[in-house]
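Ops channel
N.P.: pipeline sanity check, posting one input/output pair.
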């Protein structure tokens, strides 16, 4: 008799099963086993927010496997992730098992652990608990809120704003932040200012630089030297003066280490330092958490990665302190352990920060077992956690005041020297990090901070100085930077909007809906996104307000803490929200157009340098351009319609083949292929962007030969695509490695349905965040494992030795032998079917797959066949007329009906083709 443990992922199940041994059966739920059906009425406010839950085929199968394993079992341990979602998954699994009657005589326990190590698992099993009802209620409230907003607000968008796709409770607020930042950038007007710097030398000849701070006895503010003329006067005053040191001030400062990572700070640093997107960082962290093969043992390298807590377990802190002492010396260990508390709004402090499970597994010692992404992310987590328990860095800061003889012209030089490096020895920001910051749109040290990091030569009061070159520099104020993934996550966290586990999916949804795009790792709103935001701000202001959304998050936290009733929170929300929805019932399209035209006019019709009206119609010259809505979306049109039919897309055409939204148009040469000498170009076709090698040619027979082409993937930016990346695309498919079991090549390429990985006849599409040009073996094997779960190899056919498989299709499982397929009859389970049964089924009901392009239909006879012609075009055989009716007039010849495949057979063939 074994106990049953349920976790979320198969990788985690495999690892834990090794720890627990034969006395336990560990199964995976594969995430959520059921959800609200995507249809109206799944949440019913009139019935006090009753919900309908529906399990898909995978969920039913997994719960069925758990129910089967529970036969004869004594205990069930629900060990899903230690957060709201994990608690909800356990609740769903328990409820579905109870409905099946599988829990009779079974003791149900909930256990959680923050790391996948043998010690942590055993400790959790020793301290089981009941399901946390307040956490489950907080999940129910969040799920109901998201459903009601999405399923009620999105239809309003579709009716009143054609071309829009969806709205969401948190996604729409994040979109508003991006759009408002873009509006700030467009409204920004640069302002000129100047600074003056001078080179000096000490009596010993040591050079340094100082900046002008006082001119003509007045302290200079940022814009006090607004033009070149004033800057030149200040420069001349410095050049004419005789300067000496007025004062030298020294002070020692301490710089404390940052706390260990939370989910959001990990996403920020992974974006800034490693160039990883939020989805990619979380996927890689999941792999490190669930376990990797280290010398034959599967080991979880980091703790749970969805957390907003910055504290660490006491034993982990002391283990890190011991490691620091051994590796760096006692001077690098602070007198007492460092304790951290989160400053993030609504932080629950429920879990530990992200840290290595064993500090002695240094990045260097495990690097050979990890792929490149895993290695870089683990090193980042390890260094941050260790540095958080190291001694502070100490810096000696020096400020030197310099003045001329009159004291009316003064300059200042600042610098610092690291007196003790402390944590900076392990974790610091170098110049490469600053460059990454600049690319990501993250604030980096400016001129003043850079001056602070200079080293100044020794000086004393009243030392005379020798004046060298004096330089006046022109500057312009800069607009606020666009949000990067890192800075947007930081902003959402500061506002208390969303949860750490939701940020990655929110950012991905905005891109999938084509509301925003990433350009040089910064979010740029598409015109569709700006229209949706303007509509929601105009007619649903409250529900895209950051304060209101943050307030809802606080209420959800109060529900999870048992301080609020979740149904009452839902009643209060729905009363106001339904009233707002009702107010749009009589909303006219003209009202929407007027509101959007006023809000987005400055964007679509920017002021012209010559002062002319940007809204004058270029076709009729007396019409006014404005926003119009059609069945397919918004566009710019003339007010004199239908007399004037001038229209243009929303994006304002710009120079160099780009439009205002930055999307590539036309053709751009990337370079020359060194192997063939042919031009490589980036082009746009009817199905999107692609790269092309050479041009179309003709062979010796005059037949056209198409050049080699390759499509860009969705995550590729055409603006930054270079020759190297284009040639890599053209060389696809590429070999990733070989299957360790069969030795077959594993390849990655781009097909009709996007990027994929392939092993023999097994294909699997790449997921968001996977890069076809950089896919490694570990990730390829993980994706292929998902594909293999959809295929069961029964063996080889006794007649020809060709494999016989059962595959999972959109309309159910089917058998396949070569190009012959047959749907499994009802009652025949995919896992239970035998080779003999399937061979017999294929012989009796097998249908040959139609050729590609036939669309699953059987061939039909030509439409204009001659009367009486056989389907193959041969004349029909003559039949002797019956003797008794020899004189009878023969009936008129009829065209034979086109031969069609039976509807069921055609449907099966179509289903099988799609399943492939």
């Amino acid at each position: 008799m074994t106990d049953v443990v349920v976790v979320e992922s198969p990788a985690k199940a495999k690892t834990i099963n090794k720890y627990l041994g034969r006395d336990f059966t560990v199964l995976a739920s594969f995430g959520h086993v059921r959800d609200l059906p995507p249809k109206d009425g799944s949440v019913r406010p009139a019935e006090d927010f009753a919900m309908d839950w529906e399990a898909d085929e995978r969920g039913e199968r997994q719960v069925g496997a758990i129910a089967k394993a529970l036969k004869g079992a004594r205990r069930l341990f629900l060990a899903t992730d230690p957060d709201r979602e994990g608690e909800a998954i356990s609740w769903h699994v328990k409820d579905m098992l109870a409905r099946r009657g599988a829990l009779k005589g079974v003791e149900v326990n909930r256990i959680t652990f923050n790391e996948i190590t043998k010690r942590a698992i055993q400790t959790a099993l020793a301290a089981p608990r009941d399901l946390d009802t307040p956490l489950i209620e907080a999940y129910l409230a969040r799920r109901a809120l998201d459903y009601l907003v999405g399923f009620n607000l999105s239809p309003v968008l579709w009716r009143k704003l054609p071309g829009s796709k969806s709205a969401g409770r948190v996604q729409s607020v994040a979109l508003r932040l991006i759009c408002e930042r873009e509006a700030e950038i467009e409204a920004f007007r640069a302002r000129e200012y100047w600074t003056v710097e001078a080179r000096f030398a000490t009596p010993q000849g040591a050079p340094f630089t100082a900046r002008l701070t006082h001119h003509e006895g007045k302290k200079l503010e940022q814009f006090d030297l607004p033009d070149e003329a004033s800057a030149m006067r200040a420069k001349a005053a410095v050049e004419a003066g005789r300067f000496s040191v007025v004062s030298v001030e020294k002070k020692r400062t301490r710089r404390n280490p940052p706390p260990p990572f939370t989910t959001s700070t990990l996403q920020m640093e992974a974006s800034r330092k490693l160039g990883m997107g939020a989805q990619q960082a979380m996927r890689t962290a999941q792999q490190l958490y669930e376990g990797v093969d280290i010398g034959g043992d599967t080991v979880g390298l980091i703790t749970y990665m969805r957390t907003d807590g910055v504290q660490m377990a006491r034993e982990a802190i002391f283990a890190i302190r011991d490691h620091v002492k051994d590796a760096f010396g006692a001077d690098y260990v602070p007198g007492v352990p460092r304790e951290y508390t989160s400053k993030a709004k609504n932080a629950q402090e429920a879990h530990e920060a992200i840290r290595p499970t064993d500090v002695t597994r240094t990045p260097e010692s495990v690097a050979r077992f990890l792929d490149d992404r895993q290695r870089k992310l683990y090193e980042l987590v390890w260094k941050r956690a260790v540095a958080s328990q190291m001694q502070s860095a100490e810096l000696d800061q020096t400020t030197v005041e310099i003045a001329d003889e009159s004291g009316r012209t003064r300059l200042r030089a600042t610098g610092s020297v690291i007196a003790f490096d402390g944590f900076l020895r392990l974790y610091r920001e170098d110049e490469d990090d600053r460059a990454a910051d600049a690319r990501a749109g993250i604030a980096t040290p400016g001129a003043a901070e850079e001056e602070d990091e200079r080293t100044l030569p020794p000086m004393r009061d009243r030392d005379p100085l020798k004046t060298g070159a004096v330089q006046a520099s022109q500057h312009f104020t800069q607009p606020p930077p666009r949000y990067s993934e890192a800075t947007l996550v930081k902003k959402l966290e500061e506002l208390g909007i969303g949860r750490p586990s939701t940020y990655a999916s929110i950012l991905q949804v905005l891109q999938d809906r084509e509301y925003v795009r990433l350009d040089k790792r910064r979010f740029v709103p598409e015109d569709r996104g700006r229209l949706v935001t303007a509509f929601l701000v105009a007619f649903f202001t409250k529900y895209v307000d950051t304060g209101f959304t943050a307030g809802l998050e606080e209420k959800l936290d109060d529900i999870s803490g048992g301080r609020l009733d979740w149904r009452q929170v839902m009643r209060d929300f729905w009363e106001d929200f339904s009233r707002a929805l009702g107010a749009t019932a009589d909303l006219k399209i003209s009202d929407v157009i007027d509101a959007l035209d006023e809000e987005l006019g400055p964007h679509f019709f920017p002021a012209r340098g010559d002062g002319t009206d940007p809204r004058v119609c270029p076709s009729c010259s007396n019409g006014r351009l404005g926003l119009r809505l059609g069945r397919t979306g918004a566009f710019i049109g003339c007010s004199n319609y239908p007399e004037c039919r001038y229209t243009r897309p929303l994006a304002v055409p710009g120079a160099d083949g780009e439009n205002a939204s930055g999307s590539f148009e036309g053709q751009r040469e990337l370079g020359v292929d060194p192997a063939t000498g042919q031009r490589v170009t980036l082009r746009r076709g009817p199905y999107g962007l692609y790269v092309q090698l050479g041009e179309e040619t003709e062979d010796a027979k005059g037949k056209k030969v198409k050049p080699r082409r390759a499509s860009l993937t969705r995550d590729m930016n055409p603006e930054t695509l270079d020759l190297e990346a284009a040639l890599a695309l053209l060389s696809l498919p590429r070999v990733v490695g070989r299957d360790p079991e069969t030795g077959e090549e594993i390849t990655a390429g781009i097909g009709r349905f996007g990027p994929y990985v392939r092993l023999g006849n097994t294909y699997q599409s790449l997921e968001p965040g996977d890069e076809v040009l950089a896919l490694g073996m570990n990730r390829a094997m993980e994706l292929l494992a998902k594909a293999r779960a959809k295929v069961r190899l029964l063996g080889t056919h006794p007649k020809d030795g060709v494999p016989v498989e059962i595959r999972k299709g959109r309309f159910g499982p089917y058998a396949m032998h070569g190009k012959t397929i047959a749907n499994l009859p009802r009652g025949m389970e995919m896992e239970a079917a035998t080779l003999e049964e399937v061979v017999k089924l294929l012989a009796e009901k097998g249908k040959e797959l139609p050729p590609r392009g036939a669309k699953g239909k059987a061939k039909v006879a030509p439409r204009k066949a001659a009367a009486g012609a056989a389907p193959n075009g041969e004349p029909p055989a003559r039949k002797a007329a019956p003797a008794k009716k020899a004189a009878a007039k023969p009936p008129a010849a009829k065209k034979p009906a086109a031969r069609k495949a039976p509807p069921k057979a055609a449907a099966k063939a179509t289903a099988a083709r799609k399943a492939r």
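N.P.: looks fine end to end. The longest helix spans residues 133-160.
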